[in-house]
């Protein structure tokens, strides 16, 4: 039995690439081209900005005032010590915000008539504290609480500032939690009740685990903002990173210590921001795949 030979110059059917291989090769070529374009565009944009900055008439004065290496080396250890106070304060406030924010969200999500007074208090708390600037709350609690001279009321500026930040951010985080609770379909709760769970068990074992998982990215965004706002406590007197940098800058009229403080804040906020991006990407992939979020 004879076989039909391939036309001259045409690839053999056994060795010819399949359609999938052709599409994969085209995809790789397109990816390499996109990377090359992105690299060239980045070099052009960043190089142009650097050229404008470094050739500006005032750049020598800016470099001496903001980027003095001697001032950086001299004040960085002190600023780093103050930043450790920021980190400890941030962790303590964050834990308080998570607990208080979740409690307020649950109260606002309940529909039991007997809990209406608590729901009203939670609503007023959220509306009032979200409407007042955070720095104003820190002033009010930092100077108002000690002025009351009540037994048992904290008078330490650090504690008063932490209370103000906890209350302020709890109002925001409560709304984030509440949006997560509202996003759970009512059928989930009905199914839990049909299986014999009580209202509180359905909330604890069915609704809240899903709701919290859905709002993790916006929660991290709020905590990035909180990590920066911890510096506001410095207006009450505690020697945290920004306050120390401010005092050091005033000694020599050189702002390099402030740059040192900014770099320390970036060391925390940038990894958190990338973590938020990763979690949002993973959530999108899950939704596109049809898996439960």
Helix/strand/pairing category:
mainly alpha
Percent strand: under 5%
Evaluate the radius of gyration.
29 Å
Number of helices: 11
Biggest beta-sheet profile: none
Mean pLDDT: 87
Number of strands: 0
- The stretches of 5 or more residues where confidence is low (pLDDT under 50) are none
Task: Give a short summary of the structure.
The chain has 293 residues and is mainly α. 78% of the residues lie in helices and 0% in strands.
Keywords for this structure?
mainly alpha; 293 residues; single chain; 11 helices
Write the layout of secondary structure elements.
Blueprint: H1 19-54, H2 59-66, H3 69-109, H4 116-131, H5 134-148, H6 157-183, H7 186-194, H8 199-214, H9 216-229, H10 241-252, H11 256-289
Describe the structure.
The chain has 293 residues and is mostly helical. 78% of the residues lie in helices and 0% in strands. The chain contains eleven helices and no strands. It has helices at residues 19-54, 59-66, 69-109, 116-131, 134-148, 157-183, 186-194, 199-214, 216-229, 241-252, 256-289. α3 runs antiparallel to α10, α5 packs across α6 (157-183) and α6 (157-183) packs across α8 (199-214). It is flat. The chain starts with 18 loop residues before the first helix and ends with a helix. The model has no long low-confidence stretch (mean pLDDT 87).
């Amino acid at each position: 039995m004879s076989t039909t030979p391939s036309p001259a110059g045409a690839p053999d059917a056994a060795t010819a690439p399949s359609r999938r291989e052709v599409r994969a090769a085209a995809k790789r070529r397109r990816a390499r081209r996109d990377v090359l374009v992105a690299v060239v565009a980045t070099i052009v944009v960043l190089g142009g900005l650097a050229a404008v900055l470094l050739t500006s008439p005032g750049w020598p004065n800016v470099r001496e005032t903001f980027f003095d290496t001697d001032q950086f080396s001299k004040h960085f250890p002190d600023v780093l010590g103050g930043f450790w106070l920021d980190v400890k304060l941030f962790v303590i406030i964050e834990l308080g915000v998570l607990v208080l924010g979740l409690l307020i969200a649950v109260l606002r999500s309940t529909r039991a008539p007997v809990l209406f007074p608590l729901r009203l208090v939670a609503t007023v708390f959220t509306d009032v504290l979200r409407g007042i600037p955070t720095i104003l709350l820190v002033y009010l609690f930092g100077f108002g609480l000690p002025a009351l001279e009540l037994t048992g009321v904290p008078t330490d500026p650090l504690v008063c500032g932490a209370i103000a930040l906890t209350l302020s951010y709890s109002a925001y985080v409560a709304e984030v939690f509440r949006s997560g609770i509202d996003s759970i379909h009512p059928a989930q709760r009905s199914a839990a009740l049909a299986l014999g769970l009580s209202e509180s068990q359905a909330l604890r074992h069915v609704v809240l685990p899903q709701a919290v998982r859905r709002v993790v990215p916006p929660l991290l965004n709020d905590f990035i903002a909180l990590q920066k706002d911890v510096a506001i406590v410095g207006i009450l007197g505690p020697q945290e990173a920004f306050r120390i940098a401010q005092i050091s800058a005033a000694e020599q009229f050189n702002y390099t210590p402030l740059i040192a403080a900014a770099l320390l804040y970036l060391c925390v906020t940038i990894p958190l921001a990338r973590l938020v991006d990763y979690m949002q990407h993973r959530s999108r992939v899950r939704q596109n795949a049809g898996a439960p979020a």
